[in-house]
Design a protein that fits this description.
The chain is 28% helix and 40% strand. It is of the alpha+beta class and 170 residues long. The protein is elongated, with a radius of gyration of 18 Å. It starts with 7 loop residues before the first helix and ends in a 10-residue tail after the last helix.
């Protein structure tokens, strides 16, 4: 039997990512959590033109045999493959780089207030691994990652913006 110790989501991600990207999708996230009485293994994907139910079905067929072979989970669980959604957390390094390169509108929450505010909205202008530079109300604001409690990107809003350096609508 496979070794059940360690982070289930990280081990599943490591094993399925080559197959998911090889099929033309971006693996956005893998999470393993309890919802009510059920354990959920959730795989979130993204694609150039969005994600359809057929894409989710295709990725399910790709990852099921890989997960079965890996056998990372002792208890029963439900596998869910879904779109990463239009509003999504930016939890990983590659998420922040993607948002920066795509000039995505984001909301950023801080652990402690800066200038009396804990929430800022704008466009990530730069990301260097330690700091996030946000264009907020036409000004550049630099935040250390340790200050940030949460960042989400709003892909719906991104479609309505000019994605210019000031992060404002056309």
């Amino acid at each position: 039997m496979a070794d059940k110790k360690g982070n289930v989501a990280a081990r599943v991600r490591e094993r399925i990512e080559p197959a998911v990207t090889g099929a033309g999708y971006r693996l956005w996230d893998v999470a393993y959590y309890k919802e009510g009485p059920e354990m959920i293994l959730e795989i979130s994907i993204d694609g150039e033109n969005g994600i359809s139910i057929n894409d989710c079905s295709e990725v399910t067929k790709i990852v099921e045999p890989i997960i079965d072979e890996l056998d990372p989970i002792e208890e029963s669980y439900c596998l869910q493959v879904s779109s990463a959604g239009t509003v999504r957390p930016l939890d990983r390094e590659e998420h922040l780089k993607f948002a920066c390169e795509g000039r995505m509108p984001v909301h950023l929450w801080l652990y402690a207030a800066v200038d009396g505010k804990k929430e800022f909205a704008g466009v990530i202008d730069a990301y260097d691994g330690d700091t996030v530079t946000l264009i907020h109300d036409g000004e550049r604001r630099v935040f250390n990652k340790k200050q940030i409690s949460k960042i989400t990107a709003d892909f719906d809003y991104a479609d309505e913006t000019d994605k210019g350096s000031d992060g404002t609508k056309e």
